[in-house]
Amino acid sequence: MATKRNGTTKLLILAALVVIVGLIIWLLPSAQAQGGNQQNMDAAIANSTLVKVGDKAPDFTVEMLNGTVLTLSSLRGKVVLVNFWATWCPPCREELKYVQKDIVDRFAGRDFAFVAISRGEARAKVEAFVKEHGYKFPIALDPQQTTYKLFASNYIPRNFLIDRNGKIAFFGVGYDAEEFKHLISEIEKTLNSK
After folding, report:
1. Which of 62, 95, 158, 170 is an S-S bond match for 175, by CB 3.0 to 4.6 Å?
2. Per-residue pLDDT tens for 132-142?
3. What are the boundaries of each domain within the chain?
């Protein structure tokens, strides 16, 4: 009886090992494909980014939700973070939750300006969204994507950090906690450089 139980246990262990090895072999091509997909995504983002680090930021004029007009060149001498977003974009919505406290309030009183530009949406939709969420930071409208198309051709959210001399110091695409922390450190670094 003990020998039969011993043989059954060995057989079960062997079967489990075969299943585990089979899963590893099966998942390996999938993991490699995901790496390929990340490379494809990185290439697509690079191809859709029209300005690079070190380039002079294209000047633009946008209408703000409060009715005023803002021109990027009027902010020369400040570090400026231009954020492109849309109300329908889940990563944009997630990122915007942290902007007031972690960016606007954190860098208040310094030579820093934050400009969130709603990409491709009508004023009424943006106003309703802002009211619903209680956002107080500056929001601009880009209903025809005219300003966005100076910087990129696809993907949001996008952040372009512009140094005091009007040059692109950093840009980021998408939102996750690590990307956002990196953005904050880039703002700090750019503010501290003279």
Report:
1. 95
2. 999 999 999 99
3. 1-48, 61-192
